[in-house]
Design brief:
Elements lengths: L1 E5 L3 H13 L4 E6 L25 H19 L4 H4 L1 E10 L18 E3 L14 E10 L1 H14 L3 E4 L14 E4 L5 H4 L5 E12 L6 E4 L3 E5 L4 E5 L3 E2 L8 H14 L7 E13 L4 E8 L5 E8 L5 H25 L2
Parallel strand pairs: 1-2, 1-7, 2-6, 3-9, 7-15
Antiparallel strand pairs: 3-5, 4-5, 8-11, 8-12, 8-13, 9-10, 10-11, 14-15
Helix pairs in contact: 1-4, 1-7, 2-7
Length: 337
């Protein structure tokens, strides 16, 4: 079987890794217009799934999240952890708006620790906070994970090819199965009008003394990563396609983060980045589809896109689900011959 995975970000590469385990005899090609400049590279990579994240049902969504956590945790416990950039991390979320802001119904029963912050902990950082939670979780540093994933794939015989597609139909007749992990590109490839960009801007600073993450509400966060680089954020601009840095936004992010964690005023800026999160109104799309090749043969297409700002978190879970759909569709298609 010849398989194409469309997309070189965290969803596409993770899908490819899991696909190689599931379909050992398949000839796999990953197609992407760019492997080095994806929104995955901008993400802080903390495993925290927002309340708005949604799959087709709550049961399926919970399974995606659980499968994803276990996937990353297995890497963390392996000798590949440092190469793949998967580490333990813990920290705080503070809020004044509502106690529900510091709750998380998706991960409270999944991560090792998720508890209410004490009165003393509410005063750890700047701001007069009313509500707080402390929790432990995982972090996947995409600047390490993505190159590691590509290396794993190439060592396993997978072909990585730069190719700009205008339509998935271009792959009909060339591949038997297409895994569509095109993110925001699905807007054009699938004519999906539900796809909307959520522009985000972050600042990366050098701050080796920061070992704990901090959220001040949901619009301010300080997340330490590997090599002493800390991500300061953030922003969410709905339906914005602007990939240029905004100095006013940078100043606002820095002001909020410095107020939250005053020691950051001494942190040197390493770089600033902008990314367009592939948000899909309604829910993440993970479903099987078909298209016809020139000889009227059916080509299986499995869509796996629209993760918004939670692609790093939930890529493994949606990939596992997508692969089950692909296997079932292949069995069904073969049975009809």
């Amino acid at each position: 079987m010849k398989v194409a995975v469309v997309g070189g970000g965290v969803v596409g590469l993770t899908t490819s890794l899991l696909l190689r385990r599931e379909l050992r005899n398949a000839e796999v090609t990953v197609l992407a217009s760019d492997f080095d400049d994806t929104v995955s590279h901008v993400a802080a990579g903390i495993f925290r799934v927002g309340a708005s994240y949604s799959g087709p049902t709550e049961r399926i969504t919970r399974q995606w999240i659980r499968d994803s956590y276990e996937y990353y945790d297995n890497i963390r416990k392996s000798e590949e952890a440092s190469h793949a950039g998967v580490i333990d991390i813990a920290g705080y979320m503070f809020a004044n708006s509502s106690p529900s802001t510091v709750e998380n119904h998706w991960i409270e029963d999944l991560v090792p620790i998720y508890r209410r912050a004490t009165e003393e902990e509410l005063r750890l950082v700047g701001g007069d906070w009313k509500y707080g939670s402390y929790f432990s979780t995982l972090l996947t540093q995409c600047s390490l994970y993505l190159p590691w994933a590509r290396q794993q794939l190439q060592a396993d015989g997978v072909t990585l090819r730069r190719r700009k597609l205008r339509s998935l139909d271009e792959l009909a007749g060339e591949f038997d199965l297409v895994m569509n992990c095109s993110g925001l590109g699905a807007r054009e490839l699938c004519n999906d009008k539900r796809m909307v960009s959520l522009r985000g801007q972050v600042i990366k600073v050098k701050a080796p003394w920061i070992k704990t993450f901090f959220y001040g509400e949901l619009d301010t966060y300080v997340i330490p990563g590997c090599h002493s680089v800390v991500t300061l954020g953030g922003s969410r601009s709905f339906d914005s396609e602007n990939t240029r840095l905004c100095r006013h936004e940078s100043a606002a992010i820095r002001e909020r983060c410095d107020a939250l964690v005053p020691s950051l005023r001494h942190a040197e800026t390493v770089r600033q980045e902008v990314g367009l999160r592939p948000h899909r109104e309604g829910n993440v799309r993970v479903e099987a589809d078909f298209m016809r090749d020139g000889r009227s043969n059916r080509v299986i297409v499995v869509h796996n896109y629209g993760h918004g700002g939670y692609g790093v978190c939930t890529a493994p879970g949606t990939a596992m689900y997508a692969l089950r759909l692909a296997v079932d569709a292949h069995k069904s298609s073969t049975a009809k011959l």
